[in-house]
Fold this sequence. Notes:
By secondary structure, this protein is of the alpha+beta class. It has helices spanning 3-15, 64-77, 82-96, 122-140, and strands at residues 29-34, 41-49, 52-61. It has a three-stranded antiparallel sheet, with helices on one face. The relative contact order is 0.19.
Amino acid sequence: MDDNLKRSIILDHYQNPKNRGLIDDESYIKVNMNNESCIDEINLMIKVSDNQIIDIKFDGEACAICTSSTSIMINTLIGKTIDEVETIYNNYVNMIEEKEYDTEILEEAIVYEDIYKQPNRKKCALLPWWGIEKVLKQIRGN
């Protein structure tokens, strides 16, 4: 994917984030994530039913990278099984950490494949995904 297209996708998800806005529904798993080194703080609400992510909502204050990463993550994970989510999560983290990963399963999240070149931005791109990791651990009983 070329750099201009990556920037365009990131900007679109920052300016028009998907599923922004929390709701009052106890059937969602709630997670708060914050980055101590900057302003990023997001609240995630994840609805899981029959071993599948049915919905994800978010809100909070965050930079362009974190907000767009959250929106892209939501688009990528809704409708996936817990096993698929775990595979996507592991590949995304590997990509950010410059390890081996499968580009085919990351969908739009591939726009962050070069974020490792800006080490101070890695946490911004990872923060919402770490929230998903917490939910996976909770579901799996870890």
